[in-house]
Write a structure and sequence with these properties.
Layout (H helix, E strand, L loop, with lengths): L4 E4 L4 E4 L2 E5 L8 E4 L4 E4 L2 E4 L3 E6 L5 E2 L5 E2 L2 E2 L2 E4 L8 E8 L6 E16 L4 E4 L5 E10 L3 E5 L12 E8 L2 E8 L8 E9 L2 E11 L2 H5 L3 E4 L2 E6 L2 E4 L3 H11 L21 H19 L10
Parallel strand pairs: 4-13, 14-20
Antiparallel strand pairs: 1-2, 3-6, 5-11, 7-10, 7-12, 8-9, 12-13, 13-15, 15-18, 16-19, 17-18, 19-20, 21-22, 22-23
Length: 303
């Protein structure tokens, strides 16, 4: 029997009292501000008959990141524990109490996560030609919201106006920083920094702008040699198929063949050429014919 049910003795009947849910503010968490990396517990207490169920849900309907890395839409129970809270947990949460007796009730709890600034620079080295427009970009994350600005070589702040147009696009704790130079001149080449700072710290990202010249665009580290690609490396040149090495190896072994238009650039008296065996055969044939016509030369007479 439910404790809210009462027995009326004179009728021997049972009546069950139903009560819609009600959230107790003094036992329920209020808006919280925590440092990133700490552990957080949100509590919600409600009364009603039957006893209400408590469900936690994000106000923006995004998934809730749990400590084990999984993401869920709802968390059930009067307590909601977050281990090592991070900036992705930041936002508003609803504690919803329901017992199937209308109306359901809810309370909004804002969770704010504080962390020092962080900056990401996609291109730290940027080339530009004189006279063209150039845009430098950085991405920053910080909370409380940071102060953001650009500086030049000697930490001189780049102010709005003239050919410089710094733009800062905010999205919650994220800031997209852009610096547009309408017409690049020689004095604009050098180092730039995007700076972000709040009460917890500061950081910056560096971007170096260099001049692109005609010589840089026309030159190439790869050169062509007799129709084959070669690569320069200091004072040595390496051929892809190493024909030169093979040719030199043939020379050293005495097996180099010429086409009749080139002369050998080496002399090796110990190597027999292809013509020598043929000449020797001709000499032997001629000598045999001579002996055939002069048989007296085949007989030796004693003195």
């Amino acid at each position: 029997m439910n404790k809210s049910c009462a027995r009326i003795s004179f009728t021997y009947s049972f009546f069950c009292l139903i009560v819609p849910p009600n959230i107790l503010d003094y036992q329920t968490s209020t808006d919280m501000v925590v440092r990133e990396g700490s552990n957080v517990t949100l509590r919600c207490t409600a009364t009603g008959s039957p006893e209400p169920n408590i469900t936690w849900r994000r106000e923006d309907s995004q998934l809730i990141l749990l400590g084990n890395g999984t993401k869920v839409l709802n968390v059930e129970g009067p307590t909601f524990n977050i281990t090592k809270v991070n900036r992705l947990h930041m936002g508003s949460y609803f504690c919803i109490a329901s017992n199937h007796v209308p109306p359901s009730v809810s309370k909004r709890i804002m969770l704010t996560v504080h962390f020092p600034p962080m900056i990401w620079v996609q291109n730290q080295l940027v080339g530009a030609r004189e006279g063209e427009q150039l845009t430098l970009e950085c991405n920053s994350e910080a909370y409380p919201k940071s102060i953001n600005y650009w500086t030049r070589d000697k930490n001189e702040i780049v102010a709005q106006g003239g050919k410089y147009d710094p733009i800062f696009l905010d999205n919650a704790y994220k800031v997209h920083m852009k610096l547009t130079i309408s017409s690049v001149s020689r004095s604009d080449f050098g180092s730039y920094k995007c700076v972000s700072r709040n009460s917890l710290g500061d950081t910056d990202g560096s971007i170096k702008v260099y001049a692109i010249t005609e010589n840089m665009t026309s030159s190439n580290s790869n050169t062509k040699h007799r129709g084959k690609l070669r690569y320069k490396s200091k004072n040595d040149i390496f051929d892809g198929n190493q024909d030169m090495l093979k040719e030199r190896d043939l020379k050293l072994r005495g097996r180099k063949e010429t086409d009749g238009n080139e002369a050998d650039d080496y002399d090796d008296s110990g190597v027999m050429t292809k013509e020598n065996p043929f000449t020797l055969v001709l000499v032997l044939v001629a000598f045999t014919i001579y002996l055939h016509h002069h048989p007296q030369l085949r007989t030796l007479h004693p003195v």
